[in-house]
Specification:
about 290 residues; 13 helices
């Protein structure tokens, strides 16, 4: 396994994202996904912009690269966060997190198609392991708690994440400083979700903020750091590799779910076993055998 700066950025991002998933689990049951995503993206935008002001980092000249970063941010973290929070509400964080971990499948395909990346046969074998792990998790008994059709939500999150990863990789070739790109993308996501929330969930916005601001403040902080690390990793590594490394986060999420949420979410043996198989696939995708 290649241990370079991109690797460490991606692994640390995975840990931070797992913390964000866990914080989101406690907030989403107090409001809805629209309000939760609005708070999370708003907090992340403020944090990132504050760091830019403190450090004095300069934005690059205006150009089409800003449009690419805006699209990337709208996909990831914008739509991705909305779909993930809905997933957590529908099927629980211990299932939603591993299933959205199938995003390397979509990211790798899109990277091959649009960026010309060339994964080897064992990288593709890793993708098969990822898919099998997702299937195993989704076949976990429902016990009246969730419907199997609801896995469309985390799978949609995985697809959007894959699109966002490829777009981020393309956009970062124009940005010298990852934090400026991350802020533009995150703020674009905030504009999108706050617009939707104002239109469709206006009445629940203020009550939702009062009820769930603490967990979503934490989620926003973790999201800001996680996306920044993810973008930094993508600036230096291939999409299929970085996306796969970041998706080690479901194992961390499942670990904490077993400790704190086992009775709440009725976690069966298929969930951790499926997560381990998914992680095996992730390891293969990131391998560099000679």
């Amino acid at each position: 396994m290649v241990l370079d700066l991109a690797f460490y950025y991606a692994i640390l991002s995975a840990f931070i994202f797992s913390m964000a998933d866990f914080a989101g689990r406690f907030g989403i049951h107090k409001t809805n996904a629209f309000v939760g995503t609005t708070m999370t993206r708003g907090v992340a935008s403020v944090i990132l912009f504050s760091v830019i002001l403190i450090t004095g980092v300069e934005f690059p000249p205006l150009g089409v690269h800003y449009l690419w970063v805006m699209i990337a941010g709208i996909c990831l973290p914008g739509l991705f966060s909305l779909l993930l929070l809905t997933s957590i509400l529908k099927i629980g964080v211990s299932r939603a997190a591993p299933i959205k971990g199938s995003s390397p499948l979509f990211a790798s395909f899109l990277a091959i198609l649009f960026l010309g990346e060339e994964p080897t046969w064992y990288h593709l074998l890793g993708v098969v392991f990822v898919v099998f792990g997702v299937i195993l998790i989704s076949l976990s008994p429902t016990e009246g708690q969730w419907k199997r059709k609801d896995i469309i939500w985390p799978i949609s999150a995985a697809l959007v994440s894959g699109i966002g990863s490829v777009t981020w990789r393309h956009a970062m070739s124009f940005f010298k400083e990852p934090i400026t790109a991350t802020f533009v993308g995150t703020f674009s996501a905030f504009v999108l979700v706050v617009t939707f929330t104002s239109i469709f969930k206006r009445k629940s916005l203020i009550p939702g903020i009062k009820a769930a601001w603490k967990p979503f403040f934490l989620m926003g902080f973790f999201a800001a750091v996680g996306v920044l690390l993810y973008v930094s990793a993508l600036q230096q590594g291939n999409v299929y590799r970085i996306s796969s490394l970041v998706q080690t986060s479901p194992l961390i999420t499942v670990f904490f779910s077993f400790i704190f949420l086992r009775k709440i979410e009725n976690i069966s043996w298929r969930v951790p076993v499926g997560a381990v198989i998914t992680l095996t696939g992730v390891a293969l995708v990131n391998s560099n055998f000679q």
